[in-house]
Structures are given as structure tokens and as C-alpha cells.
Amino acid sequence: MDELIDEFIAETREMLDALGGEVVAWEAEPENRARLDAIFRFVHTVKGNSGFFDLPRLQRLSHAAEDVLAEVRAGKRQPDRRLVSAVLGVIDRIGDLVAGLESHADPGSPEEDEGLIAALRAQAPPQGEERRAIVRADGEHVGKRSIRLPVDLLDRMMSGVSDLVLARNEFCRRLRLNAASAELIPGFDGLSAAIAEMRDVITRTRMQRIDLLFAPLPRMVRDLAAETGKDVRLEIEGRDVELDREMIELIRDPLSHIVRNAIGHGLESPAERATAGKSTSGLVRISARQSGNQIAIEIRDDGRGIDGEALVKKALSLGLLTQEAAASLGPSERAALIFEPGLSTASEVTAISGRGVGMDVVRANIERIGGVVDIGGQGGSGTRITLRVPLTLTIIPALGVSAAGGHYALPRSAIEEIVRLRPGAAAIEHVGGARFVTIRSRRIPLVSLAETIGAAAADGPGECDLVLLRPAGGALYVLGVDAVHDHEDLVIKPAAPAVMATGFYAGTTIADDGSPVLLLDPPGIAAAAGIGSDAVESAVDFPVAHSNADSTTMVLFRTRLGARRMAPLSAVERIEDVPPEHIGESGGRRHVTLDERILPLAGIGDESIDAPIRILRLTDGVSQLAFGFGEVIDIVRVGAAEVAAARPAPRPGEVVSIALVGGEQVEILDLHFLFSALGTGAGAAAPSCALEAGDPWMQTFLRPIVEAAGYRVVDASDIGTADLHIISEGEAPPADLPASRTLRLRGDPEPAGRGDRSIYRYDRSALIAALSRRAGKSGGAR
Amino acid sequence: MVRLAGQRVAFPASAVESVIEIESLVPVPGAAPHIAGLTALRSRVLTVIDGRSALGRGSEPKRNAIGDAVVVSADGHPYAIAVDEVEDVIDAGSESRPASEAVDAAWRRVAPNLVEAAGEMLLLICADALIAGPGDPKPEARVA
Questions:
Q1: What does the DSSP 8-state code read for residue A321?
Q2: 20 to 30 A from A623, CA-CA: which of A205, A291, A514, A636?
Q3: Can you give the residue ranges of every domain in chain A?
């Protein structure tokens, strides 16, 4: 008997899911007999079953509904809005009662049932203009014969097939080893094909039409539209797409969340829409399609769209974004800010941006199952959100990597790019214990996989491949591995709790050769390596130096003369190696040319420089200077007390004070002194460049470039005093100036002849290169 | 009946799925010391528990715990408990009864009960306790 009741509960629930849409569709098309019949059949079935199981309340409710619907079928009553609402109420109550049967909870009193039944029987007053959701479906529900199976049976079938595949692989290897005879091969191929097909079919048994996911939406949209007083049209496409049953359960919440947002915040009220010149009823369109190994579910509305500006403002005020970074964001990147935690959960953002409660949760949920959420659309013309999820939950596209002799898999959804590190490429910078890689001018923290997970280092080529990762909701980082292998679709199974406890792994899988492989968890590794997931832009700058109020993170380094010094990490922009030809001297001061800029150079005595030197690029936020040094010793945290107790240096100079770190004396760099003495603003340090004061083109067009290159512009009348003279075409060069101190421009793009060393005046890169070159040499030429 | 850390102990046969010989072991860097690694049993991935470490008795002589193991299941996850040697399957001659205070505490944690079989008293191993590993784990030393 219990089994029969369970069956009844499951069946009723399934019918209820399918029915929500039918009732709403019926309201839109009262004359549609097929829909009316479907609803009638449902209440009829419930009535029959509840009689059989002796469930009087269910029986009374379904009987009343059946009566009313029978009247409608006979044409005695018109299905109006009130009637539909009453029928919905009864169907909901049936759902509650059925759920109650299962959990043995009591949902409401029988008296309430009577109220619902009375509402059903009441004749409706004449109806005025009513809002309603109109649902256009691209097809009717087609009944398919089906049976119910316990999930664990399916799982056993799945693992049985996996065993078959492994056995096949093993067999294949043996065959190859033993140079199998020719007649064995066709037989084996046939077996392989059969197994492959079997695997395919079994996988499909776990699949379900996505219709199941969409079925409750018409009802939800109808209720939301009524609540918010908006006109909503819902269009659904692609009901036939199939999805893993488990996946359907996992997408259900995110999807309804997005639809709720679209109606609640995205769509405008009818009046607003009319003002904006749109049709008064808003459109929400949901479509599903399969593309390759993914299912894409698109939720599109034609509402007011996402206010990227407001999101950026909010992100700035929360410190999630720097001004610079904000300026470089494109429209879709701005909209994507909605996924940042803290940005979307705050209620006032909802008010400003129009949507977004808990979008970070939506993204996290989708990404947990290996999916991706995209957001698009422009302000005013609506929003488009696309959920992309893998076809099955358990099969994840992954990249095989190896580190310290072990093999691991990385989920492909987190991978942005794979970079091969060529030997000798100076792309990696060391800052004490931390390492950074510069990839296309982005500086990204480098994490060694082997070190992070504590695998014993093996002899070998070392880390020569880098994988650029963007974990769900986290900051970009680069994972260093020994080698990158193939892309593979892996069947992932959960790992034992003791393995998960490490935080490094997301599951286990079996490689083709039958050996176990661990699936890495990119966010977990980032956390273990100390890379925060806090800032949007932490990839661009150093990760925020973990500076609490009472301590400072310092770079501890050795000067070229061997002294131990330190400087606050926050003031160090980067560390670079500078070749000697980029170092020049002017007015008794040295400077270096870096990235088309000239920076004053400190930390170097009078010694002649003939090998590359290493510099700290220091910044005060506006200007920069370079400080030559020997090597970085460490990154240390120095307590405020220690800094305060530091003994002031005897006289003003590069060192402000001396502190004790680990029992040893360390000099602290006097940044204020360095910048005040050498800062780029202090004219003496910068090489001078003479431009003709009377030439408007030079003053307006050229001057900014020259100044940006680090020169101090002086008047051309100081002949011979400037480090560099720029001379326009046809003008006589000032007498007795060496060629290294002049730069001649011409108006013609083509050089006049072989001996012409002038530069076309709009050849910007050549100009900048020449300016940098001259700056480097200007001192040495004297 | 198996030998674990030089001692003869018993696993309840009802809890044991099978007895395997571990041929290869994939290490799990970063996991607790008693997690020897992973091994594959057909298409299943077993988490291998180093029986000695789980007792708090140091590691197996060979860390590549190749040898006999008992396959058990806990919370839906399959485990292989690496032991010195699997000896025999025997019927218990008596109901199990609580181990006395005289039994070493490390043993008592994983084997709260005794059982009499083949004329000797054997500790009856509770696989869950072995899987949980020695309590009071050392603070995790992670290389940042």
C-alpha cells in the first residue's frame, strides 16, 4: 500500500508540474479545448485515486474542480479570470496536500478547502479590463510512454558502462602489445562501437526534456505580472532540448531567479513603456538550445536593461574597482559587474541598477556545475542573460596537467589561456617569495601547483607551462605546471571527504589507462596560495599588500654595495632589469629609460655600468623613480612598533632610519627624500629638450609627446644648453651640435635619400624611440 | 582476520566489500598523512587509508603501500584500508564485547570491541574510526 501511495504522490506531482503551464495557457485561450481537457483529466485522475486511497479532502477538492470544469466543457460557464484563479487555487491546494502526505505534515485546515471550493462555485461578476500573461508555446505537450526508475539503478548502469569502457581500453592495450591477428580486429572494433553506443544510450537515460524546467514558468510569470501590475508576454522555445535530470534540478533556482529579476526589475510598467515608445506589454523570451557539449539557455527581456554606470559607481564606492580599471571597462564588462558579490546583494543597488539581487549566487551555482553565465544587452533595450551548462553533470571538459610527477585535471571552464614559457624569457619577476608573470602587459600572480599542494618536487624540466585561470568569482592567476597534456572529457566523481578536506581538489576521475586522476579546484588553490578573490582588478596590480593598520609589508633587499635595506611594498610598482644602454646621465644625475619614459635613477653611485642592473620601480602614485639594487632578500612584515622604534639616520639621505628585522639592522629607504630630490617634477634631473617657441606645431603637437617621454622642454634660444634639439625641416641646425643631440623632423613621409636620418613628423613610434634613445645617451655623449 | 601494525585484528565481514591487492597508488598531495593515495578498482576510485598511520603508528614501511587492502564503504565513498596482510575469513565464536581498559588507547579508538574467534581474542576494527584518522591532526603546513 505504501508503495502505491508513493507512486500516486510521484505521479500527481509530475502532473502538477506539467499542468501549471496548461492552466495559464488555457486562460489565454479559453476556447482551446485540448488544454481544458488536460486539466480536466488531471482533476479527474486525482479524484479517482483519492477515492481509492480514501483521502477525503483531496477527493472533495478534485470533485468540486471537476464539476466546474465539466460545466465549462458543456458550455454552461465561461472560463474567466476569477474561475482560472479559483482552479489554480484548488490545484495548489492539491499539491500542498500531496506534499503533506509525503512529509506527514498537515497543510492547512479543511475549512480553508471549503473556501476554495466556494470560490470555485461563485459566479463571476462581469469582467473589466484585466491584465494577464499570455503564453505562446511552440507546441503542445505530447504524452510519451514512460516508466519510473530509481536513480541508483541508473547510476549502477552508468558505472557498469564505465567499467566496460575501461575493460575495453585495457583489452585494446593488450591487443596492441601482442600484435593481434587480423581476424580479431574487426570483432574488437564491433565490440568497441557497441560499447560506445551503449554508453551514449545510458547517458541519455539520465536526460530529460528541458520542458520539465520550463513548465512552472508560465504560472510564475502570471503571478509576478499580477503582483507587479505589468503586462508580460512569455515566449518559450526549445522545449525539446535534453538535459541531465540532476542538472535540471540545479538550474531550476537560478533560472527562476533570473526570470523573477527580468519581470520585477527589468521590465518597466506599462506607462513607462508607453513613454519610452515600446509596446505596453513587456516580453520575456526564454530559449534553450544545444550547441556541442553545452546547453545554452537564454533569458531575454525587452525592458530597461542594466544600468552599467550605476554599477560602476557602486563598485567604485565599494572599492571593488579602481578609477583606471573602471574607465577601461566595456559595456558588457560593466554589466558583468552585477555578478560581483556585494554589488548585487545590496538592496539599494537594486533600486539604482534595476536588478540583481543575488546574481553572484546565481553565477556561483551555475559555475559549480561547470557552467558559465554571460550577460549582455544595452541600456534601454533590454537584457540578455545566457546560462551555458555542460550537457551532463558528471562529464566535465578538462585539461590534463602534470606537476612534480603527478597527473591532475583542471576544469576547462576556469581556464582562460595556456602560455608556454620559453626558456630564458624574462617574463617572470620575483618579489621575495611571490612571483608574477607579465602576459600582454597584465601582471598576474604566479602560483606553482607543485609547491601549493605540497607535492614532492621531482627532477625534471621544472615548470615550463603556465595556465591562466579565472576561478569562479575569483581573481585571475597563473598556475605553473610541468606540462600541459590533452583536453579530455572526464567523468567526475566526488572524492572522499578526507581528500576534499585539502581544499585543492574538486573530485576524482579515471584516466583512459585506468589510473585515478584528481580534478583540481582552481578557487581552492588560489585560496591556499593566498590569492584573494576580493578585488576585480587585483590581477593588474600587486595583490593588495596584506597591510593591517599595525604593520607594513616591506621589500627587503640588498643594495649594490651589499647593505640591507627595505622599502614599503606599496611603493614598489615593479622590479625590472635594465640594460646599460638604457642608463644615461644628465646634469650629474643618472636616469633610466623604461617603457618610453625617463625615470631618475637612485641607488647607484659613480660606478660605471656595463652590465644590466636590477631596479625597484618606486612610485608615489604620480611620478616614478628607479632605484638600482642588488637582489631581493624577502618580503617581510614589519610591525608599526618596530618602525617607530627605528633609530633615525644621522643625516638626511636615502635612508630614513634603521630598524631591526630578525635581529639584524636594516635601513629603511627614505622615500620622501628620494622623491623630493629626484622626483620627475624636479627639473634638474630630467634631460632638457629645446623646441622652437615660435613654432605652433611643435608647441601644440610635439610638446606633449616630448614631455611624456620625460624631457623638460626649454626654449630653443638656449642654444647648446639643452640635451636635445628638435629641428624642423629646412631649418639650419645650431652650429657645433653633435648629431646625437639633435633630432630632425621632415614633412614628407618618405626619406629624401639614403643619407636622410630625419624622422617623419607623424611617425609617432619612431619619434618616441628616438627620444628614448637620445635620453639614454644624452649624458654619455658629453 | 587481518594483521595490522603487527597485530592480529578482525574486520566484521559484513562491512568488507572485498579484499584487493593494491598495485598502484596515486598520491594526494596535501591530504592528511593517513591518506596514502588513490587507487582504482575497475571504474571506481578508492581512497587508500594507510592503516598504520591511521592508528597513529607511523607510516607503512613502504609508503607506496602496495599490498593487501580491505575495501569498505563509508558515507557512500569507497575506501581501501591498507593492512599488513589479510589472513583468513573466520566465524566469530562469540558476540562482541567492549574492549577492556587494558587495551592501548590508540587501539581502543579504532576498535572499541573485542570478539572471540578461533580461540583467541581479536580486536574488532571499526572502519569509520580508521578512516577518520588519528585525532588531533597537526596544524596544516601549507606552502603558500
A1: S
A2: A636
A3: 2-126, 151-205, 209-390, 398-425+438-528, 551-678, 687-778
- Of A664 and A237, the one with more pLDDT: A237
Candidates 3.30.565.10, 3.30.70.660, 3.40.309.10, 2.30.30.40; CATH matching A398-425+438-528 = 2.30.30.40
Q: Which CATH architecture has domain A551-678?
A: Beta Barrel (2.40)
Burial of A316 (0-12, 13-18, 19+ CB in 10 A): middle
Cα separation, A39 vs A1, whole angstroms: 27
Residue with cell 458550455: A75
Domain ranges within chain B, ordered by starting residue: 1-135
In the prediction, which pLDDT does A569 show?
74
Tell me if chain A has a CB within 8 Å of the CB of B77: yes
Cell matching residue A19: 499542468
CB A293 within 8 A of CB A413: no
Nearest CB partner across the interface for B39, out of A163, A501, A516: A516
CATH C-level class of A687-778: alpha beta
Q: How far apart are the first and last CA of chain B?
A: 44
Pairing of strands A505-510, A483-491: unpaired
Q: All 3 cell numbers of residue A508?
A: 576524482
Q: Is there a contact between B77 and A494 if contact means CB atoms under 8 Å apart?
A: yes
Judged by a CB distance cut-off of 8 A, whether residue A504 touches chain B is: yes
CATH fit for domain A209-390, picks 3.30.565.10, 3.30.360.10, 2.60.40.60, 1.20.1640.10:
3.30.565.10
The chain B residue lying nearest A403, using CA atoms, is B29
Chain A residues whose beta carbon lies within 8 Å of the beta carbon of residue B143:
451-452, 454
Q: Select the residue of A451, A502, A510 nearest B45 (Cβ to Cβ).
A: A510
In terms of average pLDDT, the best of A341-345, A457-461, B94-98 is B94-98
Instruction: Give the rounded percent of residues in chain A with a pLDDT score beyond 90.
Output: 0
Q: What is the pLDDT of residues B69-94, one digit of tens each?
A: 888 877 767 888 887 777 777 666 66
- Cβ-nearest to A163 among B34, B42, B131: B42
Q: What is the ipTM of this complex?
A: 0.76
* Residue A153 burial (C-beta neighbours within 10 Å; 0-12, 13-18, 19+): exposed
C-alpha distance from A496 to closest chain B C-alpha (Å): 6
User: How many CB atoms within 10 Å of residue B139?
Assistant: 5
Prediction pTM value:
0.43
- The radius of gyration of chain A's CA atoms, rounded to the nearest angstrom, is 36
pLDDT, tens digit, 9 for 90 and up, residues B39-51 = 877 667 888 887 7
Phi, psi of A391 (to 5 degrees): -60, -40
CA A452 to chain B, closest CA, distance in angstroms equals 5
Which ranges in chain B belong to alpha helices (H)?
A: 51-55, 105-110, 127-132
The percent helix, strand, coil of chain A (3-state, each to 5) is 40, 25, 35
- Judged by CB atoms closer than 8 Å, whether chains meet at B28 and A510 is answered as no
SS3 A67: helix
CB pairs A-B closer than 8 Å: 86
In 3D space, the residue among A366, A354, A364 whose CA is nearest the CA of residue A255 turns out to be: A366
Q: How far apart are CA B99 and CA B7, in angstroms?
A: 15
DSSP B49-83: EEHHHHHTS---SSSS--EEEEEEEETTEEEEEE-
As a CATH number, domain B1-135 is 2.40.50.180
CB of A501 less than 8 A from some CB of B: yes
What does pLDDT average to over chain A?
72
Helix, strand, coil abundance in chain B, percent, nearest 5:
15, 40, 45
Give the DSSP H/E element, type plus range, for residue A347: helix A347-353
Class of domain A2-126: mainly alpha
- Cross-chain CB nearest to B30 (options A454, A496, A515): A454
Cα–Cα separations (whole angstroms), residue A714 to A654, A689, A697, A711, A732: 30, 6, 15, 9, 18
